[in-house]
Amino acid sequence: xxxxxxxxxxxxxxxxxxxxxxxxxxxxxxxxxxxxxxxxxxxxxxxxxxxxxxxxxxxxxxxxxxxxxxxxxxxxxxxxxxxxxxxxxxxxxxxxxxxxxxxxxxxxxxxxxxxxxxxxxxxxxxxxxxxxxxxxxxxxxxxxxxxxxxxxxxxxxxxxxxxxxxxxxxxxxxxxxxxxxxxxxxxxxxxxxxxxxxxxxxxxxxxxxxxxxxxxxxxxxxxxxxxxxxxxxxxxxxxxxxxxxxxxxxxxxxxxxxxxxxxxxxxxxxxxxxxxxxxxxxxxxxxxxxxxxxxxxxxxxxxxxxxxxxxxxxxxxxxxxxxxxxxxxxxxxxxxxxxxxxxxxxxxxxxxxxxxxxxxxxxxxxxxxxxxxxxxxxxxxxxxxxxxxxxxxxxxxxxxxxxxxxxxxxxxxxxxxxxxxxxxxxxxxxxxxxxxxxxxxxxxxxxxxxxxxxxxxxxxxxxxxxxxxxxxxxxxxxxxxxxxxxxxxxxxxxxxxxxxxxxxxxxxxxxxxxxxxxxxxxxxxxxxxxxxxxxxxxxxxxxxxxxxxxxx
Length: 552
Fold this sequence. Notes:
alpha+beta; eight-stranded mixed sheet; six-stranded antiparallel β-barrel; 14 helices; globular
């Protein structure tokens, strides 16, 4: 895979959007407004809404009922309603258990546990036992490295992933159309890991052409073996395949924490369709921010088109990462997905379909005091979407997230990793320090992360508020009668606005905003008097990606 398809580049976005005509300046027209539930009529309306919600989503209804109860703990109506929703989830838990849907049962259990529901004490199965049952058949969890495995043995555990797309017609001539990638076995019964982008045509609902998925064994490259996609993750570019075969070699999954910059690694794959290719190199960096959900490794091992999805192994033969991208025309600039992410993702991939990442509708960065020796102190929340999970739970701008389900969170990476372990659609406990440095624990529901978080902010908040996470500048309107003139109140360091040269108190006039067709980026045009330019009038346009690691 060419890395330019994965990295957000400001300059690339500017060129991509420079010809988009600017639309009108407007903000969200569906902004959530908090209400006073102490009014009986308002409370009854909310209870009715949550009851309707429970028909589709019992866990989310439980969370909303818990928030109501916490706001009015002395109210008999909220107490009874909370108990009613909790009992619905208890029934859902028991029904899932009876049907041996252990993963679904675990979601109910974790959510009831997060809100501290006392009725859980009556269940016979412990959380540890339920977790074991839910994860017992997940491939890759119990494989250890073969002590005397040779390199040739390991090569047998890799495959060429072949997506046959039929015939492509160009200038009246038909050509065979196919996608080639690599993969590797993680279980004896034929489960294979590869990249999502290798098999994307197999799962893309917009693709209407022919496609068939096969794998080719390293020792038998002439035979196509049918395979199927079990689960996939667009965000982390991972996919789990299954073929009916007894794997000739099964790789053990290592621990990326064992690796550091300079360690020797080996890549096995099928670059340009050349099976059984082994290359070597070192870890150049362990924290390149290329994904919206975490960091990746940079390696200098030779990686080319067709290597995507192959294993990156250490000197003991353990998989430490999954190769996913290389930069064309640049030698030694290649990237791989840490195995820790794969291990967290495997249960979700195994249970099938598209992996839905969770979020709490917020924006923020790692909090760290100035100075080279300063330690991270958590994740500073710069913005919360009105009506989003964080907002409803009482997290506000200036709060600092310090834990998730009791596990410490010291950085944005820690928060991303904590969310990566969770399915969307469950309730979690989040430790928070308020702007006044008061510690509390909030109960949050993990919504499905949208494909364009920034666009959600734009749709459901005022323009001056939405621009803070979207472009990194918080604005205040300078005239009630003029919706286009603003003054910049705050600038986020390292944001698009900061890199474009804006400062606090700069006056600006918005001329228009528009979006790319898939809502992946926003483009604005404005007049400004930038302090850094001596307050000279300047007309400019710039763009920003509407998804980044800072949306969570």
